[in-house]
């Protein structure tokens, strides 16, 4: 009885959102950690011997690409699970879609912060370096993935198409990366990429970096939980709408 | 009839059908090829320098190929979805791998014809010199690149088939995937044309890259095509 | 701090983008939850 009461209490408070007590705590933790990270990165941590103050961009740049990679790997894993599972639960597909969307946001941020860093360090926003170019392709590929998710069709069709596409992307990205590296290795005009990028990390810098990875990981989990629940609600409503339409048609036919 | 021969028969029938449709409509000859040719002329307007044109001719040939391919792929699946032929084949229990092979082959034949025309255009308009050895390498490059392009084009074309907004979706999906082909084929063609003082021997590693791409996507394509077009 | 505008700028842009995205998620999640006829969600 006591348990039941508590459950009612929670649900009256959180019923009308995608949040729960757990996600609120997680969200608060993410805010605290990110604030601490900003203080660590912008004020407390020392300047780098080689890079000077530009290293302060790294504390936000590295975690964004970390989150993006994590998100895309999760998308691939969930897509594979969806395709291989016997009951083919749409839940996997929704996690894959939510994860890819967050990944696209963070890869964009990573490209942006990276190019600001490059402008200071190399004097140019962009170099045709293998890693940069492959990251740009990663970005476009998952924009395409998100576009495919928005195509007309049933939820099952969306899930199957996008799962196959996510697995194809896993195949495509190493191929693109490999060929771009081969391309760059013969055209070494962009040698700026190797100049002045060494970072000598002392303990506080290393701590800040890993703290940043942890903070952004918490943020990622929070975003993923909410986004995935939002997709659940959207899916539920669109199938309700469909059911209602079919019901209306049936009544019309009987009449 | 064993399953294997029936699969080959289906593939041959699908390829024949596609090529016959093209032969009757002459869309490739009357619209796509002139489009590719005008793209080559427009490149000359944009770059406006004989020396530069000669240097970048390989890249332009392959860019024009990719743009034309988008049209051909869309056409190849518009034919299928207009009368629900793809669905009919699926309902009849035809192996999707066989459909994939047939459609890919038909696409490859059309692409080869286009590429031959584009290389010819480069020789005539851009003053590219082609030696006998270069010609041999060009043919190998074309075959390797076309197998990859045909498979990828069919795979992603099938995904976008019969969907609203496919005209704009297909380039977004297809172009990032074929980037390795653009890189590999352009470098190999530079070697074949001798642009920028490239030697013929420099081209072979790139042809290996094209071969890997073709191998990967022909294998994966025949597996993934079924779930993609399955309705 | 040298290059302060670039450094602060990259942090501000990131914070803004993530903030807007998170705000949108919460707001749209609430809207959808309110409009949903079945109020028994798997996570409650």
What does this structure look like?
The complex is a heterotrimer of chains A (about 260), B (about 230) and C (about 45). Chain A is mainly alpha-helical. Chain A has a domain at about 60-190. Chain A has helices at about 1-15, 20-45, 55-85, 90-120, 130-150, 155-185, 205-255. In chain A, helix 3 (about 55-85) runs parallel beside helix 7, helix 4 (about 90-120) packs parallel to helix 6 and helix 4 packs across helix 7. Chain A starts with a helix and ends with a helix. Mean pLDDT of chain A is about 85; it is low at about 1-15 and about 190-195. Chain B has one domain (about 5-230). Helix content of chain B is about 85%, strand content about 0%. In chain B, helix 6 crosses helix 7 and helix 8 (about 180-195) packs antiparallel against helix 9 (about 205-230). Chain C is rod-shaped. With about 45 residues, chain C is mainly alpha-helical. Chain C has 1 helix and no strands. Chain C has one helix at about 5-35. The interface between A and C is large, with 43 and 34 residues.
For the sheet with most strands of chain A, the description reads: none
Tell me the count of domains of chain B: 1
Order of helices and strands of chain A: HHHHHHH
Return residue spans of chain A where pLDDT drops below 50 for at least 5 consecutive residues: 1-14, 188-195
The residue-averaged pLDDT of chain B reads 89
For the largest interface, the chains and their residue counts are:
A-C, 43 and 34 residues
Compute the CA-based radius of gyration of chain A.
23 Å
Main β-sheet description of chain B: none
Q: Over the alpha carbons, how many angstroms does the gyration radius of chain B reach?
A: 18 Å
**Ends of chain A: how far apart?**
49 Å
Tell how many strands the DSSP assignment of chain B holds: 0
Helicity of chain B, in percent?
over 70%
Instruction: Note the total helix count of chain B.
Output: 9
